[in-house]
Amino acid sequence: MGGQYQIRGDKYPRMRRPRRRGRLVVLTITSVAALGVAGWGTLQLFDVFTGGGHPASAVGVKAGCATKASPSPSPSPSVALPGPDRITVNVLNATTKSGLAKKTADELRKRGFKIGDVGNAAKEYDKKVKGIGVLLGPASALKTSLPVLGTQLADAERRTDASRKGGEIDLIIGDAFTRLTAEADADRALAALNDPEPEPTAKKGC
């Protein structure tokens, strides 16, 4: 060949493109840097959701946690309940059966109650009480004397009369009455009334 491309000796010029080492180095450094930033961001997010490596205090319920019921103290009655010896009961018969008022009054007296009037019920109630009975008193007796007397006749209806004065209460015997609540059961009900058992509350334990 002539001209400037003359071959001399036993070496031939190599016709290759120049290597792009610089570009490859730049791309490699950029890729490593991008991966580093992405990894750092992932660690930051992990710390945020896990509390920086410390146990999270409010991230759901842990596996194995159990809900246990434990008693919590119930508040004492807001009003002190009177004992039976401080309650005067009028025993009135609203049925056609004779002798029920006296018999019931004698039993209540044995159980510690004071007895007032004993006889037939007023016309308003006479032969008109279909249930076991009615406990009637002034408004102030609703959460004091009536609940105490109610332990002796558990299913009796409780009523108050706003116009009524004094502290006496009535036990009006109805058609369904047979006898007072058994004394042992009445005593347990009275004890529970004065000292209620604590209600169970659910607690979570892990």
From TrEMBL:
Domain LytR/CpsA/Psr regulator C-terminal: 86-177
Gene3D superfamilies (UniProt xref): 3.30.70.2390
InterPro entries, per database record: LytR/CpsA/Psr_C
Membrane spanning stretches: 24-43
Pfam families: LytR_C
Keyword vocabulary terms for this entry: Membrane, Transmembrane, Transmembrane helix
Keyword Transmembrane tagged: yes
Protein name, as recorded: LytR C-terminal domain-containing protein
Species for this entry: Streptomyces incanus
Source organism phylogeny: Bacteria, Bacillati, Actinomycetota, Actinomycetes, Kitasatosporales
